[in-house]
Amino acid sequence: MIDKKWIGHDLQTSTMTIERGRLRLFAKAIGETDPVYTDVEAAKAAGYPDLPAPPTFIFGIELESGSTDRLLNLLGIPFRKLLHGEQGFTYHKPVCAGDTITVKPRITEIYDKKGGALEFVVKQAQALNQAGELVAEMRTVLVCRH
After folding, report:
1. Residue 8, Cβ neighbours under 10 Å: how many?
2. Please, which residues bridge with residue 83 across strands?
3. pTM for this structure?
4. Domains detected in the chain
């Protein structure tokens, strides 16, 4: 069983400066065809200071940092038993090329179902820009199968 003592535990923060090339590559990878995500002039015409990050891009900041691997090690969850249960986003401000985003995750809930056959870890994170403004909140539910 995953120890509930970890509820409320702050995980390591992750920081990334957002680059145009990464945004263009991500937009292509998700099949985004709106030029606002790939053309600086189109982005500026739409009112952005630079290319905006496509939805879900900021989730990759935390993934790329190795945060999930550290979380699994901390909680003793074998990767082979892991399922991605849910992902949710609340956006507050646009994230654009040139911004530096810091993601601050915390374990907010641990519970089980089916007599412990499934354990759930809920992680919530705040994403802040270089001015300390909240740009997004993320919620992830990980499931461990036994």
Report:
1. 10
2. 143
3. 0.90
4. 4-145 (3.10.129.10)
